[in-house]
Amino acid sequence: MEGPEAAAPVEPNREPSRQLEMDALLSYILLYGVVISLALVTISLIWKWLATGQVGFVYELAGMNLYQFATTQIRTTLAGQIRPELLMNLGIAVLMLTPFMRVIASLVFFAAVSKNWKYVLFTSFVLVVLTYSLFLR
Questions:
Q1: pLDDT over 70 percentage in the chain
Q2: How far is CA 73 from CA 56, 62, 64, 76, in A?
């Protein structure tokens, strides 16, 4: 091939590989979050069944945000009151925090790696909304 097209060497574009790495990271965050949550919930149900012969839990989480929920569980743990309900609640907390962690990872990627300020702005908005829904409600 002759002409200007043949003269310029083609440099590999590294941005798609970074994007693929980010996609993989977000996938792993989702996968591990769901698997850890499922494991905690399953262990709590088995523990409850072995201890009482019943599988269900009877308690209410209404009127509580994630911050109140987490501090209650921390106080219960520090008081030495380890029960199947604690594992169930930890499973719920991990599941609730999984999307939060994905948004934080995306924000760091867009700001530090790709320097895409439009996506930083959009992701920051999503982070603010998630923070409000998890902690300030």
A1: 88
A2: 19, 15, 12, 5
pLDDT, tens digit, 9 for 90 and up, residues 19-53: 888 899 999 999 999 999 999 999 999 999 999 99
SS3 53: coil
Amino acid letter, residue 128: V
> Do the beta carbons of residue 69 and residue 89 sit within 8 Å?
yes
pTM: predicted TM-score of the whole model, two decimal places: 0.76
Distance (Å, rounded) from C-alpha 97 to C-alpha 101?
6
Is 91 in contact with 73 (CB distance < 8 Å)?
no
Closest CA to 136 of 68, 60, 61: 68
